[in-house]
Amino acid sequence: MRRSPERAERLRRARPAPAVVHRAVRVTAAACAGFYTFRYGLDRPASATYALFAAVALGVLARVEGSARTRARTILWTLPAAWALVCLGTVLAVHSWAAALGMVGVGFAVSYGSVGGPRMVGLANGLQLLYILPCFPPYSPDTLPQRLLGVTAGLLLLAAAELLLWPEPAPPDYRGRLSRAALALAELADLAADACAGRATAPGAVTSAADRARARLDELRFSRVPVMERPAGAGAVDRALTHCAAALRYTGPQVLRILRLARPYPGAARLTAVTAQALRAAAAGLPRAGPVPDTGVLDRELADFDTARAALPGPDRTDRTDRTDRTDRTDPTDPAGRVRPALGTAALDSAEGARFVVRAVRVGRHAALPPDETPADQRPGPFWYAYDPAPLLWWRRFRANLTPRSVAFRNALRTAGALGAARLLAGGLDLSHGFWVLLATLTLMRTSAADTRTTLRPALVGTALGAAATAAVLLAVGEHPLVYALALPPVMLIAFTAGPALGPAWGQGLFTLVVALVFTQLAPASWRLAEARVVNVAAGAAIGLLAGLCAWPRGGAQDLRRRTAGLLEDSADAVRETVAVLTGTGHPGGALRRARNSTLLTEAMYAQYRCERHDPAGDGPNWQAAVLAGQHAVRGAEPLLARIPPGTAAPHRGGARALLGHADQVAAAFRRQAAALRAREPAGAAHPAVARARAALVAELDGPPPAPGTDGRVPLHAVDVAVWLAGLLDDLQQIHESG
Question: Which of 5, 263, 295, 396 has the fewest beta carbons closer than 10 A?
């Protein structure tokens, strides 16, 4: 009989991936080897229990990614934490209230540790189980050595299995994505340099190169990257890779702007060609074994180009004339000359972006950086983390997230409260095998009540069916431990394979049968073991659902709206302050630093939102465009402040007033968009104020070049600032498009 396409697709999705099967084999081998050795070889039931559950905790509940060596190393690094959690749980099991308080503390600490990066996120559930297991009766501090022995053996066996049983190669990491994006941008920059040099390109070459560059840059979005591959740690290397991605995403639109404005302009052609070389060097240096790139050539070209743009016109120019083409001089009567100021700005911005990319790569390779060039009154600079020791970076990350605005802080509170309540309930009702209550709460609770409800039904159905199968097996087999010992490995292998492939119903049902096969080998059990499993899972799931209802039941949607509005407001302050500093009419007040921190918090909230279930029709505005608007406000201000000395952007008072007026309009547009988000205004056409502000800026940029100042120099830095402001208005217009 011929299969329908829909059925074939379902079968394809249900087929487990080889990596899932290999992992199930490794966990089953490690868990069963430890369990059988201690249970039947050494007659130490406590050690057998902890050896098995330690392997399950780090092999199934936790997410340990990377190459085989990396996974084994991570497992071994968790040994001290595992010992501490087992000791703490054993001691606090003396009273239910003590165990519950300990559960609150451990639940918060382990969950909040996720701010340290994806590895901590992946390890969180596994580490929680290592406290949950010993914090239940019987209170047996005398068995602590056996428990520690079992945990140690289980983790060592799991690490050995990672190295010996189907060791998997390292998955593609974020460095590879960055390298491909840098190469695509380098190809596009070469085409832009050809256009500025007057060289013709093949039809369609620009379009195809631009499409490739956009696709590669899109791959850098965290919503497109598996959680464990994201460089979200607190250390300098992860920060540098994140900074590199942001700089590449800023550089891309600048290169495209060169192509849109391209006219014969040899100076811009030379600078853009050097920009392409720098991007290629960065791409080659991103792999750990590649050559470390340097910014020397790019720094010199940037300085020469920037100086030449503002050089005195006429025959009295210095000997720098031989390095700068005469078309750098703008002529108001020349139609082509009218676009040269903006074209020069685009070339400068793309080169600055490439320099940021190279410096971020150098930080990621632990290469030396020059002293921080940021003026003292504007510090910290963009690469502040490269000059601080790692412990200080971690402390700052943890301290910065100790706020209700932080996703990690709020999730830690929710997890701690739910697990503490589950422990009190299990102890107060004296539930048999009460740790199943906490395990169900831990594995079924989601960041929103809707997600928890979606997971709850299949989990309860699977548990009930698994319990029915368990009761039938216990009634049929009776007290014959040998049968259960022989059945445990294949059932465990099937459970750990089918769960990830077929969903929570299969996972909960088969895991119910696994735990029954384990406990019947430790002590005689009847069919009531299956009944206890159903009751405990139902209680744990109910607590998880209540936690989702009582603590931020809508997940990240409402918080993302508030956080994004706050980002746009902080960006408005940063825009106004940056222009005031550049024109000499104000002083740094920390607005840029606040906007930078707000960007990080909003990115974290957006990442959580993308992981939740939500109705696409209710997505609202283009959230990614809103986050990018805030990113470009910060990433655009940083190179301007680094390149333009304070007070020199406009050499005369009229020009300064004009720039400040534009900055006020852009800041007002940011605040207007923030107010629209808070008021839940529907997506649609851009607000008229945004359109008017952009039209005024574009008309000024498309008009004649600025008049020379009192010193005879053309204030092209004012054009740089105006182009940045116009680009921010373009970003704001994108927010009104449907997400």
Answer: 5
Radius of gyration in angstroms for the set of CA atoms belonging to the chain, rounded to a whole number = 30
Paired with 621 in beta bridges are 738
d(CA 290, CA 283): 9
376 — phi, psi (to 5°)? -55, -35
Q: Which tokens go with 524?
A: 């005689």
* Burial group, residue 251, by CB count within 10 angstroms (0-12, 13-18, 19+): buried
Q: How would you classify residue 588: left for phi > 0, otherwise alpha for psi between -120 and 50, otherwise beta? A: beta
Quick one: tokens of 37?
């050795």
Cα separation, 210 vs 207, whole angstroms: 5
> What are the φ/ψ torsions at residue 621 (nearest 5 degrees)?
-70, -175
Q: Is the pTM of this model over 0.70?
A: yes
Cα 223 to the center of its chain, rounded Å: 7
Instruction: Identify the residue whose tokens are 């994006």.
Output: 181
Query: Residues with Cβ < 8 Å from 329, sequence gap 6 or more?
Result: 313
pLDDT digits (tens, 9 = 90+) for 33-76: 999 999 999 989 999 999 999 999 998 888 887 788 888 999 99
User: Residue 228 corresponds to which tokens in the numbers above?
Assistant: 């464990």
Alpha-carbon gap, residue 33 to 739, rounded angstroms: 51
Distance CA(673)–CA(75), nearest Å, equals 47
From the list 265, 272, 273, 271, the residue with the least C-alpha distance to 330 is 265
| Identity of residue 631 | Q
Q: Tokens 């009930």 map to which residue?
A: 464
Helix, strand, coil content of the chain in percent (nearest 5): 75, 0, 25
Could you identify the residue written with the tokens 């971020």? 360
Residue type, 335: P
Least Cα distance to 348 among 292, 402, 309 occurs for: 309
DSSP letters, 313-371, are PSTT--GGGGGS-GGGS--TT-TGGGGHHHHHHHHHHHHHHHHHHHHHHHHHTT---PP
